[in-house]
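Render this sequence as a predicted structure.
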Amino acid sequence: MANRFFIGYKMVAFLLFSMIGLKSLNGQNCSAAQNYALNRPGVVMIKTVFSANVYVNQMKMDEKFLNHLLDSIQRADTAGAIFSPEQKLDIVFKAMGSRPERFFKKTFNYIEQTQQITATGTGFFITGDGYVATNSHLIDRDNAFVRRQFILTAFQQMTEANIAAIENSWAVKLSAEQKNDLYDSYASVYSKLVPMTLSDLKKTVYVVYRNDQPDGSVSTETKEASIIIKGQPMPGMDVAILKIETKDSLPVLKVADDQLPKVGEQLFVYGYPGPVTNNDFVSAESAIEPTLTTGIVSAIKKSVNGWPVIQMDANINHGSSGGPVCNSNGEVVGLTTFGSLENSGGLAAGLNFSIPVSILNEFIDSVGIDVQVSGSTKLFSEALDLINKHYYQKAMRKLEEIKKINPGYATLYTLIDDCKDHIGRGEDEGAKNLKYILLSVAVVLLVSGIAIAFRKK
């Protein structure tokens, strides 16, 4: 009798293993959708905000020369050369443009304006406690560039205000050509007669990332970052490591070993390209969603300083700098860093470069950072594997554990809702297998019972 029950249990075990064949996706090739689902939470936006006070002498129009010009136009008009109001304005602005120093003069009064300039790029978490990898050139603009941008911004704002004041006081609406003439006049005046100066130049670096809420809404978390270490912008080692303070177990991208990818390998590139982030037709709240582009390793080149760079044909743009370049296993193999320029000055499509992780690892090792997959990311990866195999109940348990250590984990509540929907439709493989297991046990017990009854008979 014991032998018959042993045979029955062997039948149950055979049925169980024939119905449950689990294969983990970890360490295996994954699709673009799986790559994005895994790594999207750990991709962040980098914002470097420069602020300064701009000082400039207030200038005023020289009424003497302006009246002299208006009188000459009036004399010509009464002599028979009839001008329309628009033509008279054209004459005035052309004269101002040819000799702006005659019509404008500076005063001893100063105008002070507080200006801000923001540079954006991409980065990614490399540890669960808030270390971020990105490019150095995003946070280390040279002072000459920053000052030039401040002066250009201040000049544009002041010029637009001056043109608006002229329209208001003269009760006219200037044409685009007339505004351009005035713009050129002011440019000449500000560059020659009224130089601008800067003071209190400051720089603050922020890490911005997605933070999900239990009600299904999505917000962004913006945290000031400290600079742990940085290299030099290209042609230097264009890598920087930042740190934010957090109590959560943050989503992390796994960094691959130092081996370079092979030519022809598939790549997945994440970033915040400016033409998308600043697109007027894209909602502001979706700006935090990174863009994924794909391509292959086109070549392995050397930088002018002799270390390797990865050439790739995946499309990138301004704003993508510092973003992770991942292989088909979802591991980071490089950082998007620079492109190639056309003769026109624009970026050449499909001729882009990334710095390999061997360079990143030099910086990581130099400051003693222990790079490990965070607890939340480990659970998230396991949950995605289970979801891919339709084990929604088991995935739910993993996702609920994430809520305890990082309740704002990106896409967490979306996945929980998806799992509930699948379970509600009876699509959970775990429930199906349990039903088959119970049915199999019942069959085995029934067969064993019949065998025992016949034996007794």
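Summary. The first strand starts at residue 43 and ends at 61. DSSP finds 13 helices and 13 strands in the chain.
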